[in-house]
């Protein structure tokens, strides 16, 4: 029983100490690989991505038309 309490105490302390880097307005977490159902649009640092659930991403990324130049403002 004492061993169980010791293991429980150590695990709770380690869980408190381990900080998770948050991103995307605290809705995302920095990870090396995103879980199923998560997307990433920005990078946290060189080796991690900001993984956010799709319900928190309020815009759609559409494929750009590469034949049109950036300065083109003609209405179709």
TrEMBL record:
Q: Give a GO cellular-component term.
A: extracellular region
**Which UniProt keywords are present, listed alphabetically?**
Antibiotic, Antimicrobial, Defensin, Disulfide bond, Secreted, Signal
Gene Ontology annotations of biological process type: defense response to bacterium; innate immune response
Asked if the Swiss-Prot or TrEMBL record annotates the protein with the keyword Secreted, the reply is yes
Domain named Beta-defensin: residues: 22-51
Q: Where located? A: Secreted
What Pfam families does the entry give?
A: Defensin_beta_2
The secretion signal range is: 1-15
Family that this chain belongs to: Belongs to the beta-defensin family.
Role summary: Has antibacterial activity.
Q: What is this protein called?
A: Beta-defensin
Species assigned in the record: Trichechus manatus latirostris (Florida manatee)
């Amino acid at each position: 029983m004492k061993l169980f309490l010791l293991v429980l105490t150590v695990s709770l302390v380690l869980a408190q100490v381990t900080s998770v880097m948050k991103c995307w307005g605290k809705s995302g977490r920095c990870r090396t690989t995103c879980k199923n159902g998560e997307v990433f649009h920005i990078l946290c640092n060189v080796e991690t991505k900001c993984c956010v659930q799709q319900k928190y991403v309020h815009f759609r990324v559409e494929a750009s038309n590469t034949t049109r130049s950036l300065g083109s403002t003609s209405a179709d």
